[in-house]
From TrEMBL:
<dbReference type="InterPro" id="IPR016024">
    <property type="entry name" value="ARM-type_fold"/>
</dbReference>
<protein>
    <recommendedName>
        <fullName>DNA alkylation repair enzyme</fullName>
    </recommendedName>
</protein>
<dbReference type="Pfam" id="PF08713">
    <property type="entry name" value="DNA_alkylation"/>
</dbReference>
<dbReference type="InterPro" id="IPR014825">
    <property type="entry name" value="DNA_alkylation"/>
</dbReference>
């Protein structure tokens, strides 16, 4: 199964209304580069490729850059299927610089990473200092999804707080991180809000998103308001 055949498989899953919907959500990707394939269908295709056409699936991972948005998403979903940590990390490292939108960035996260938290953290620490927008965003996203519960350490808050950027998609993820941290690790996180050391955009968005959460009490939501900039 060649890359052309894989692309044909994606086109066979085309959903034009969904294409229009997707294009509105990811303005950094030209509409001509969007086929319009729903995420469950792409994940099912990735699973099929890895199970029945492993050689072709791995060849697909070598063929960067891709043109279509869905090719990039499929790429990430194939990486998700890999059971070997070193291989999954190798292909993730290679793929990150080619990510050009928030949706691809936020959609894939190999489960194998959660089984090797210390090893993954070493890469996250590097990613959040990258000059690539979506590499930084990806690192923050993994800290949000994998390290705000049992694996949480207060130093991770400092890592994220120290990130400075003019990039909207980095700052939005920082805000999501702190908003989520307020719901899960409130005592450790609230000093960052009270000190007002985050950038005005991140500070205000963190408070906004936290106040929209059902996991935060009404009293806490009122308390947070006084720290808006």
């Amino acid at each position: 199964m060649s890359k052309e055949i894989i692309l044909d498989r994606l086109w066979a899953l085309e959903d034009s209304p969904y294409r229009d919907f997707t294009a509105n959500l990811i303005p950094t990707v030209e509409k001509s580069r969007i086929i319009g394939v729903r995420t469950p269908a792409m994940r099912a295709l990735a699973k099929e490729l890895v199970k029945h056409y492993p050689t072709e699936a791995m060849s697909f991972l070598e063929e960067l850059p891709h043109y279509y948005y869905e090719e990039n998403n499929l790429h990430g979903f194939i990486i998700e299927q890999l059971k070997d940590f070193d291989k999954a990390m190798q292909y993730t490292e290679r793929f990150l610089p080619y990510i050009d939108n928030w949706a691809t960035c936020d959609t894939f996260a190999p489960k194998i990473f959660s089984k090797y938290p210390e090893e993954t953290l070493k890469h996250i620490k590097q990613w959040i200092t990258s000059k690539e927008t979506y590499t930084v965003r990806y690192g923050i996203g993994l800290l949000l999804s994998n390290y705000l519960d049992a694996l949480f350490k207060e130093e991770y808050l400092t890592w994220v707080a120290k990130i400075t950027s003019d990039e909207y998609y980095i700052n939005m993820m920082i805000a999501w991180y702190f908003a989520t941290a307020l719901t899960k690790q409130y005592e450790a996180t609230i000093p960052y809000i009270e000190s007002k050391t985050l950038s005005p955009f991140v500070q205000n968005k963190s408070i906004q998103k936290a106040r929209e959460s059902r996991r935060i009490s009404e009293d806490t939501k009122k308390y947070l308001l006084q720290f808006k900039l």
